[in-house]
Specification:
The chain has 244 residues and is mainly beta. Strand 5 and strand 6 form a beta hairpin. Helix content is 12%, strand content 34%. Strands 1, 2, 3, 4, 13, 14, 15 and 16 form an eight-stranded antiparallel β-sheet that branches. A four-stranded antiparallel β-sheet has the order 7-6-5-12, with no helix packed on it. The chain is globular. It has one domain: Ribbon (Umud Fragment, subunit A). It contains two helices and 16 strands.
Length: 244
């Protein structure tokens, strides 16, 4: 026998739960999955991260499906150089990318003799002894590991191919209200250097700041449903680690 009251109460519960989930996702915190190796060694394929939506304020891209409910950005806060940021790509305003913020409005950025220059000053990088390889997609590549230091003192690790194929670029001048992003895996990242597909990112396209990894698994070893492989596929040492 159909219980109408039971059906209505459960439907209301699911509706309220959905509304709460949308509010949390839009205004507070949202999970994201890392699908590419462009941010290695700091973010690995299979990492699941939390991004705070309130850090930079809100635009239409803060909400599911980017509804045009208002223009611009409200409660806006400027991101800091070196932040790891999720943003919507300017090419389609739909696809989520995650990169490191290098250039602020008015900055100039270029690579010269395989070194990164910001406003005509070389970004200091020091070689560090770690492993000699990382991934670019499914391919393992030979790289050198460096620690870079931005002018505001922000430190993070990057990797470059050992033969430094990226020697020189044009000078990029960041427009007003825009930002310039790079992947930490410098030779395996589609980022602001590619003007036709990413380029300069408008402030309204910022989604939020990446805060920490809450879960990580290596899908090349096995699905998370393959519990007999958890000792190899789950990266327990990455659980609840802060993103630098």
């Amino acid at each position: 026998m159909f219980n109408k009251k039971f059906f209505i109460e459960n439907t209301k519960t699911l509706f309220y739960a959905l509304i709460i989930a949308v509010i949390i996702r839009s205004f507070l915190i949202q999970p994201f999955y890392i699908p590419s190796s462009s941010m290695e060694p700091n973010l690995l394929v299979g990492d699941r991260i939390f991004v705070t939506k309130y850090t930079y304020g809100y635009s239409k891209h803060s909400f599911p499906f980017s509804p045009p409910i208002f223009k611009g950005r409200i409660m806006s806060n400027n991101p800091k150089r070196g932040d790891v940021v999720v943003f919507k790509t300017p090419a389609d305003n739909r696809t989520d990318y995650i990169k490191r913020l290098i250039g602020l409005p008015g900055d100039t950025i270029k690579f010269q003799d395989a070194n990164l220059y910001l406003n005509n000053s070389e970004i200091i990088k020091s070689k560090i002894l770690k492993k000699n390889s990382t991934f670019c997609g499914r391919k393992e590549i030979n790289v050198s590991f460096f620690e870079e230091i931005l002018p505001n003192g922000k430190k993070y690790n990057t990797v470059y191919l050992k033969n430094f194929p990226l020697q020189n670029t044009d000078t990029f001048k960041v427009p007003e209200n825009h930002y310039f992003f790079l992947g930490d895996n410098r030779d395996c990242s589609k980022d602001s250097r590619f003007l036709s597909s990413v380029g300069y990112v408008h402030q309204d396209n910022l989604v939020g700041k990446a805060r920490f990894i809450f879960f990580s698994s290596d899908r090349s070893i096995g699905s998370i449903f393959s519990f007999w492989k958890w000792n190899k596929s789950l990266r327990f040492d990455r659980f609840f680690t802060k993103i630098n």
